[in-house]
């Protein structure tokens, strides 16, 4: 039975924490796949979270800066268990992949690079495309339904994201406003309007003069967490501009390796900041980079969350959320196409992606980590023994 009363959840906080520890440990595929897993597991299968609560979380996560999947996990923790739930769930989701990245970072430094990673990523990257394609398909059909206006928004945002290779917060806001005026023209509560407008204010640029490497790391990654909108993928261009071009902390190959680490480890893609921080200043640098990146998104989720809970059932808010959700899912679909264009570079990668998607579509109970492992082995065999 679905629980809609936030005071009588059908699950314990311990159960939710355990779920997110598992998701952070085995959840491959980046933000697109992760938000799909949350919907599949928590809304469809377990019925711990209502469809409305999930949509509100998606809308807030898309409107606020920072990593999409991490913000959604924090919001879902907040739904029934408030700040304590949001805090513990966020930690449970991020910590497993952070610890894995620390281990890889140590090996990378100790052994002078990881050439095998490119071979692994050759197969894993292709399999990830198959996984996120199926996740995006399920999320789209479930959330948008047969509403032609929502499909129109979906197509526009998917096309824009694919063509420009970036997500636009203004188009997402405009989509919510459009559906609001189409479905619920009456006046908005003033507090709700303020809640909707606040993300735009966060795009004001900021600069600060700092001294000391850890302070530089803290400030740079705070900006990354506070001023970059969109999914985890959206942060990559920002990181490149600062890490490689401005501060010269990493060279081109090291940065490519950092992105590869994010893709072959489970959990949020943004956890690559831990790898970057480790290369710059060891364990302290990794810890500061991760904390500075995730703290803003935590605050930008829990602070407006009470307003979403209080006004979320208002017809105007629901219409706005519908528009934003359709736009967010369209942007996710566009990101899938961008990733496919970059990662499906030859016939073997295309075959791996198509096979992965077909297997997941046909066999519902197969777990994604097994497919990831198989793709990693195939990638290494192809790179070392077939493709010279």
Report the end-to-end length measured between terminal Cα atoms.
Answer: 55 Å
Number of domains: 1
Q: From the helix content, strand content and strand pairing, which structural class follows?
A: mainly alpha
The major β-sheet equals:
none
Characterization of the model:
By secondary structure, the protein is mainly α. It has one domain. It is 78% helix and 0% strand. It has helices spanning 13-26, 30-45, 51-63, 68-110, 115-144, 148-164, 169-183, 190-201, 213-227, 235-246, 252-264, 272-302, 305-311, 315-343, 347-362, 368-386. The longest helix has 43 residues, at 68-110. The protein is globular and about 60 Å long. The protein starts with 12 loop residues before the first helix and ends with a helix.
Outline of the structure:
The chain is mostly helical and 388 residues long.
Layout of helices and strands:
Elements: H1 13-26, H2 30-45, H3 51-63, H4 68-110, H5 115-144, H6 148-164, H7 169-183, H8 190-201, H9 213-227, H10 235-246, H11 252-264, H12 272-302, H13 305-311, H14 315-343, H15 347-362, H16 368-386
Keywords:
single chain, 388 residues, mainly alpha, 16 helices, globular
């Amino acid at each position: 039975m679905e629980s809609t009363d936030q005071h009588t959840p059908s699950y314990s906080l311990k159960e939710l924490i355990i779920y997110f520890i598992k998701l952070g440990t085995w959840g491959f595929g980046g933000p697109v796949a992760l938000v799909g897993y949350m919907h599949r597991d928590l809304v469809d299968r377990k019925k711990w979270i209502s469809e409305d609560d999930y949509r509100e979380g998606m809308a807030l996560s898309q409107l606020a800066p920072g990593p999409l999947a991490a913000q959604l996990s924090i919001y879902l923790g907040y739904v029934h268990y408030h700040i304590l739930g949001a805090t513990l769930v966020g930690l449970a989701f991020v910590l497993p992949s952070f610890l894995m990245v620390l281990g890889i970072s140590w090996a990378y430094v100790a052994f002078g690079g990881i050439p095998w990673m490119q071979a692994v990523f050759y197969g894993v990257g292709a399999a990830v495309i198959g996984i996120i394609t199926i996740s995006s398909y399920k999320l789209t059909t479930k959330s948008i339904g047969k509403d032609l206006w929502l499909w129109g928004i979906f197509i526009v945002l998917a096309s824009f994201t694919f063509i420009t290779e970036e997500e636009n917060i203004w188009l997402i806001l405009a989509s919510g406003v459009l559906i609001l005026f189409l479905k619920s023209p009456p006046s908005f509560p003033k507090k709700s309007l303020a809640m909707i407008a606040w993300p735009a204010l966060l795009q004001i640029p900021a600069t600060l003069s700092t001294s000391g490497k850890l302070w530089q790391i803290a400030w740079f990654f705070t900006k990354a967490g506070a001023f970059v909108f969109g999914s985890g993928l959206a942060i990559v261009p920002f990181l490149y501009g600062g890490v490689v071009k401005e501060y010269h902390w990493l060279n081109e190959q090291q940065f490519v390796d950092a992105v590869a680490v994010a893709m072959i480890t489970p959990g949020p893609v943004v956890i690559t900041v831990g790898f970057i921080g480790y290369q710059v200043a060891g364990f302290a640098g990794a810890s500061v980079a991760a904390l500075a990146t995730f703290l803003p998104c935590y605050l930008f989720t829990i602070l407006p969350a009470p307003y979403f809970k209080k006004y979320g059932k208002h017809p105007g808010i629901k219409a706005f959320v519908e528009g934003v959700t359709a736009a967010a899912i369209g942007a996710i679909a566009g990101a899938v196409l961008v990733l496919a264009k970059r990662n499906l570079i030859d016939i073997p990668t295309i075959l791996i992606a198509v096979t992965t998607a077909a297997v997941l579509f046909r066999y519902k109970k197969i777990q994604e980590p097994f497919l990831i492992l198989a793709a990693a082995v195939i990638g290494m065999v192809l790179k070392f023994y077939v493709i010279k």
